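Reading a protein record of the kind used here takes little practice once its layout is understood. An example of such a record is reproduced below.
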Amino acid sequence: MTVPTGRRERKKAITRQKIADAALRLFLERGYDTVGIRDVAAEADVAVTTLFSHFPSKEALVFEQDEDFEQRLTRAVTDRAPHEPLIPALRREIHALVRHCTADSAAPIWHMIDASPALRKYEESMRLRHADALATAIAADPDLSRTTTACRAIARFVIDAYSLAREAADPKAAVDEIFRMIEAAWEVTCPSADTTGTAGP
């Protein structure tokens, strides 16, 4: 989670984390569908209105690092070293994110998500939102010079790489395999690339 700087921001971050921890604890103990918003608020010792000021929905409680995930991906684009190629920077970040989500401690959470149609639907909409944010960051970089369609397609591929690798028997190998395809697709979208199959001038 992004570290807040001001006292008020730190207090809000602590409350948010307390709510998220309480929700996850109840969801794993009792089952996602059997726990209500009021149950979570009571467990976290906050008002329901306070809970909703931090999380817009019950589903969002499960994906409390949603914003951090999105920021890490966009920063992989915006904060990479001058002239560093885009795809290796994104591959490095996806590797780190996949390592986190495939840790043994994360397994019960993903089992819960996979078993819930509501959570799967929320995760799908979240992936699309992350892809849009990543595509915007790529398109805004003047050094990358790709069409809007190319930026959106590559961003979708990167987000899907995370999901596919999470489910693979060897997540690290899966990330590398998928990113070889992403690298090839990125090169094809270069304005100077010859896509006709014939030699250029």
